[in-house]
Amino acid sequence: IIRDRTAIRVRLLLLQCYTLRMSSRQESATRRVHVLGKQVTSGTERPKRVVAFGSVCTDNFWFFKDLSIGTQAGCDYFRMPVGAKIPSIDVEEAIGGSAANVVTGLVKLGVQATLLAAVGQDSVGQTGIATLKNRGIDTTGVVVVPGQRSDQSTVVRSTNNPDRTILTYKGATLTESTVKADLVAGASLFLWTSVGGKHPVAAIKRCMQVARATGVKVAAAPSQAMIATHPQDMLELLAGTHVLSLNDVEIMLLTDTKRLQDAISKFLAAFPQMEWLQVTRGKKPSLLICRTQSDNNSVVRVVRTTPPKVKAVDTTGAGDSACAGLLYAYLHNTSAEEGARTAATTSTAKVCAKGATGGLPDAKRLRLLLHTFDFVQSSFTTTVQAMVEVPDKDIL
User: Fold this and answer.
1) Tell me: the pLDDT tens digits for 271-291?
2) Which long-range contacts (C-beta less than 8 Å, at least 24 apart) are formed by 297-301?
3) How far is the C-alpha of 176 from the C-alpha of 202, rounded, in Å?
């Protein structure tokens, strides 16, 4: 009897130990959060979710062999004689649009994403919705507009130049009354991207009202055309934006300056709520300017990142992929230096493959590339006012 009682006690003790061990594992699993290339401990976090406003566009890629290239006013252009019939070597079709490209990159990295967009009542639009769903993107915010056609683009590429020329057709658009702005509530981040026309701008403002009312941070990636067409609206939209990705030409156009340091200083002074500002510069080093966590929001950390040298296959979507990497880093509260490396990594991985979303890494490959790519990085701390005094060698 004593032996049987002892055996039962031992079994109960083993069962308690096993239960405690499994409970500890489960708690540990909920508290471990992988932040890019490292692991940190944190409280239980809900999945990151981004709601993006933009367009769904069918991109038709036409590839040519050694098109004649001319130069005018410092810009290269493809020479295509009027009336000529030029044979292509390949044709591809893909679903794109800036917002669609960015959220495709985010979903691959494990972020949940909802797209707010409009498509026409045509087969192109239906194909676009189906493709986005297959990528894992929530399309409940994509509206089908009767009587209108969907956005389409023709992308011209040549084997003797990694850049491209894009011909666009703008079709169905969202309006203030048709946009499903309520989907913004509860998101980790709201992203607005380039659109054309007054109606989409009004729709963005409606979404930002919801974001402001529900405490959702706002990110943006406008185009040069949008900045030039809607300058006053841009100022209003940027006043409520916390993360911004644009290129050097766009920020100088936005601030009406001709020197990059002046543009950055003027921009940050005008928008004190801006937390992260990314300025891409094509093949040249990119800049990430972050306000430091101090009582004085005029103090900024400037990170200059030279991407690794790779053989560029296709630059289409490079800016969108950099934006996806930037937002992924921002959502995971990385340092300015790691945020800049992440944006450069996603952009570099993309230009090594064809298509607007080709080569975009998942989270596991991103961590590998972060330790594989050879970056050259420098950083310094200054103030918004002192940015104008920064030497060209530290910026350019």
Assistant:
1) 999 999 999 988 889 999 999
2) 297/272, 298/268, 298/272, 298/383, 298/384, 298/385, 299/381, 299/382, 299/383, 300/268, 300/381, 300/382, 300/383, 300/384, 300/387, 301/336, 301/379, 301/380, 301/381
3) 5
28: CB partners within 8 A, 6+ apart: none
How many CB atoms are located within 10 Å of the residue 143 CB? 18
> For residue 276, which of 332, 230, 235 has the smallest C-alpha distance?
332
Please give the single-letter amino acid code of residue 320.
D
Cα dihedral sign, 351-356-358-361:
positive
What's at 391, amino acid-wise? Answer: P
- pLDDT range class, residue 4, cuts 50, 70, 90: low
d(CA 137, CA 129): 9
Distance (Å, whole) CA 25 – CA 381: 41
Q: What is the sign, positive or negative, of the torsion defined by CA atoms of 361, 363, 367, 370?
A: positive
For residue 100, which of 317, 363, 350, 281 has the smallest C-alpha distance? 317
Q: Which pair of structure tokens corresponds to residue 276? A: 């992260």
Sheet of 217-221, strand order: 142-145, 112-120, 49-53, 189-193, 217-221, 243-247, 276-281, 284-291, 299-306, 376-383
**Amino acid sitting at position 78:** F
CB count in 10 Å sphere of residue 185 = 14
